[in-house]
Design brief:
Number of domains of chain A: 2
Shape of chain B: elongated
Order of helices and strands of chain B: HHHEEEHEEEHHHHH
Oligomer: heterodimer
Largest interface: A-B, 33 and 32 residues
CATH topology of the largest domain in chain A: Enolase-like, domain 1
Distance between the termini of chain A: 49 Å
Order of helices and strands of chain A: EHEHEEEHHHHHHEEEEEEEHHH
Number of strands of chain B: 6
Structural class of chain B: alpha+beta
Bound molecules: flavin-adenine dinucleotide
Radius of gyration of chain B: 18 Å
Strand order of the largest sheet of chain A: 4-5-8-6-7
CATH superfamily of the largest domain in chain A: CO dehydrogenase flavoprotein, C-terminal domain
Structural class of chain A: alpha+beta
Distance between the termini of chain B: 44 Å
Chain lengths: 320, 232
Amino acid sequence: MKNFKQYYPTTVDEAAKYLKENPKDTYIVGGGTDVIGAMKDFILPTYPVALVSLDKIPGLTGIKEEGDYLIIGAMTKVEDLAMSDLLKSKYTCLAEAASRTASPHLRESGTVGGNLCQMTRCWYFRHNNNQFDCVRKGGSTCYALTGETRFHSIFGLTKMCAAVNPSDLAPAMVALNAVAVTNKKEIPIEKLWSFAVPGSTTLDHDEIITSFKIPKFTGKSCFYKASVRRTIDFPIVNGACAIDASGNARICLNAVAMTPHRCTEAEETIKGKSITESLAAEAGAAAVQKAKAIPGTGTSNEYKIEIAKGVIKKVILGCK
Amino acid sequence: MKDKDEEKAVLSRRQFLKDAGIVLGTSAVGSAALLSACGTNEITKTDTVTKTSTVTKNVTTTVVEKETLPLPIETENGRLLISFTVNGKKFDATVEPRETLHHLLHEQLGFKSVKTFCSRGGCGSCSVLLDGRPVLSCMTFASSVGGKDIWTSDGIGKEMPELIEAYIDNECMQCGYCTPGFIVTAAALLKRNGNPSTDEIREALAGNLCRCGTYPVHIKAVHEAASAMGGK
Ligand SMILES: Cc1cc2nc3c(=O)[nH]c(=O)nc-3n(C[C@H](O)[C@H](O)[C@H](O)COP(=O)(O)OP(=O)(O)OC[C@H]3O[C@@H](n4cnc5c(N)ncnc54)[C@H](O)[C@@H]3O)c2cc1C
C-alpha cells in the first residue's frame, strides 16, 4: 500500500468535516475488511489521500429495540448480529444472513455499515491496478458482457453493468424493510444502491451511515445463501423472505444484479395463501421470469437462474 | 513494499545497536492471567522494546503520559504513536497509517508467529485476538489498535498449555504454517465456549485454511483441549 493520512475522528460531524475537506480522495473505513483489500489491489478509482475511520466514534454500535423500531448501530460487528438472541428469535433472517457472511474472523471486524456499502466483487472491477477501465469505474465498456460471467448478473442486463452486489446482509435488510439513517437523512434501504455508475451506493461523499432502523417485526423470516464453500465464499445467489403477522411478504434476492433485487412477482404469488411446497416453487418460477443469462465467452451464468428459483423456494418455505 | 521493509529492518537494527541499553520500562498490565515474558521469546521482546522505545524517545513525556488515550497521536512524518498490549505486555510503537497490524506485529515487534499468506483476509494465518475477538491482522490497520489488548499464539500457548499439548498430541501440523492461526482461533472459541460441539468447532475454525488438509485432527485437538481444561 502507498501511504496516506489516517483520521480518527471522535464525532460523526468531525468525520464528515474531513470527508468534505477532501471531496474526492477520502474514504470512510468501518472495519476495513473491504477497503484494505481494495487498497492492496489498487482498485479504487483514486488512491486515497486520507482515510476517515469511524472506529473511535462512540455510540455507533449496538442492537436494541426502541419504540417502534429495532436499531442497529452502523459500526456493530457482523458477528454480533449473528450471535444476538434478539435477532435470532425475532429478526431471524438477519441473524442467519450475518452468520453466513464471509468467515468468522471477517465478521469479527467487518461492520454492518461496511457490509452494505461494500464494493462489487466483479473480477474485472477488482482486477489489480485498475486494469479494466469498466463502466463502474467511469469507463465505457462492461468487460463481463463479452467475458467470464459465471458469477455475474441475471437481472439488469439492459443497465450496462453486469456486476452483482455481493452483500449477504442486504437481502435480509430489504426483506425487513430497513431504513439507513445517515448524518444527513433517512434512506429507505432499497434506495441505498443504484445502477447509476460509478460507485457502490447512492450516499454523498460526506454522508455517513450511523444506524439502521427496522420496523418492529413480529412475523417469520428466513435467509438462504448458495455458495461454493459454506464459509468465506461470496454468495452465488442469496435471498431472504419476511412474512409479517398480517401475511404480507417481502422477498429479496441478492448477488443477481448490481442492486439487491426485490421479487415483487414472488410476493404477489404467495399473497394471502397458505404456504405449500408447490406454491413456494411457483413463486420461485415467477421471480425469475424476467431473468436473463449472459452468454459471455466462458462459462455462462445460466445456472444462476435455477439457483435463484431454488433460493426463493427455500426462503418462503422457511417462513412456514 | 519489500525493499522498504528491508530498509526499515536494517534501520531498526542499526538503531538498536546505537540505542542498546536504552530499554524503555515496560510493565505488565491487563488481566490477572498474564504471563511474564520468558523462554525463547525474551530476545525478540527485548529487541522489540528497544526498537519501539527509540521511536518514542523523541516524543515528549507528556505524550507518554497520555498513553491510556486510545486515539493515536501524530508524530513526525505523519507517523502515529499508539500504545497497546501484546500477550499482556505493554508496547508503544509508531506506525505509518498504511501499516497493517500484521506488519506491526511481525516486522516491527518481531512476533514471528503471526504469519501472512493470502494477505487479503481469506486464509486466517494472520489471526490474532484483538480485545478477545479473533481477527485478521492483515485486514486491520495498525494505527487502530491503540489501547487494545492483543494476544498472539505465543502468548496463548503459555496461557492455555492444554491447547498446545492437544495440538502436539494430535499432530495437527504438517508444514505448520497455518498452525498459529488455528491456535488463536481455537483459543477464542474456548474462551467463549468451554465445551464446544463438533459443529461449533468446525464453524469457528472455518476461516482458517490448511493446504496440508489437517482439518480433522484440529477438531479432535480442540475437543481434547476443552476436556483437559475442564470446560473452563
Ligand atoms: C475473503 C473475504 C470474504 C468475504 N465474504 C463475504 C461474504 O461472503 N458476504 C459478504 O456479505 N461480504 C463478504 N466479504 C466482504 C466484507 O469484508 C464484509 O462483509 C464486511 O462486513 C465489510 O465491512 P467493513 O466494516 O470491514 O467494511 P469497510 O472495508 O470498512 O468498508 C466497506 C465500504 O463501506 C464504506 N462504509 C463503511 N462504513 C460506512 C458507514 N458507516 N457509512 C458509509 N459508508 C461506510 C466504506 O467507505 C467502504 O467503501 C468478504 C470479504 C473478504 C475479504
